[in-house]
Design a protein that fits this description.
The chain is of the alpha/beta class. The protein contains twelve helices and 22 strands.
Length: 425
Amino acid sequence: MAAPARTMWVNGPIIVGAGPAGLSVAACLHTHGVPSVVLERDDCIASLWQRRTYDRLRLHLPKRFCELPGMPFPASYPEYPTKHQFVSYLEAYAAAFHVRPRFRQSVASARFDHAAGLWRVQASSSSDTGGDEAIYTEYIGRWLVVATGENAERVLPEFAGAGSFKGPVTHVSEYKSGEPYRGSRVLVVGCGNSGMEVCLDLCDHGARPAMVVRDAVHVLPREMLGVATFSVAAFLLRFLPLRLVDRLLVLLAGLFLGNDLPRLGLRRPDSGGPLELKNSRGRTPVLDIGALAKIRAGEIAVVPGVKRFMAGGAEMVDGSFVAADAVVLATGYHSNVPQWLKGSDFFSGEGYPKAGFPEGWKGESGLYSVGFTRRGLAGVALDAVRVAGDIAVAYNQSNRKSASSSSSSCTSCPVLLQQQQEPVP
């Protein structure tokens, strides 16, 4: 990276990411009177939700399990808010806690300077004049909060013969609606919640989807007798061990969804229940909202893994051929932390804290993480509260004389940043 055009001292934590995780920890810090700076590579908060999700998306869990710290959802919201409602909630949340991220700040590297005892975060932004030249800024502070989350980058698998396929190939992050696919044969690669829901949406728009199911998967009903399955699981976990709860969930799933899923091409994992696999490997169980009925009706075909693509479709691992006019890759996302966090062994090569839940929120030298628990928005909220509380103690201890004046001037992160520039030791 080129030498930074400017250097800025941050009197508080540097937070990387302005999704739900970054907003949550900044809001919690604000309630403690601790200023912070939030760096976001895109030009809006929660860019994954705003730019890379399909139109029909709703929260998969009841809203009470998805609230961020200090602010419930509006009472007028349905049990499963739409993505537009969730984005509106996040925007109101940021405004309520005076969180004003610095947008178009793409973090290229973050490294702890042991000699100075400070974090140095280098970020690039596009030129103010609109040209191609990037402006490099180095942010320096005592604490770094990694809040880029588990879904920072798309997973784009390589397939044999991919260049031979003649139709459009898109990632689910680019998929908005099934309307452009009306009347088309669409091969959807992936059978998670996104893959299932995209197939359902394609059916609703008159397309003919085939869903690739390569691995075993747990499928659960979203609700049982009007009660959210997640609510049932949370209640049972108060009294029973996780493995027993998993067994009960599988039994209930068979009761409400039927026991013919293996015949439909959806086999359950031989070991590991839905909650255990979610916690240990991040493999989220699929919550059925109607796709199984379409599969049983023959409107969604279930096919095995892809061996190679061909001009008009794909050869599958069982030797069969699936004709397709288009392909949608519902292959998920991954963390990008290893690309920019340097000199730290707190995160694994896959971009997750090496310490398992609930210990993975705090590292050494003022390093923290929020949003890597594999427990969705509830895990984000729990991390944010812990991180903010811990930083607040350290902040008040090291800035006792100036804490009052610093917190009273914290009207916005950019203003704070400009006002409190100091020479770097």
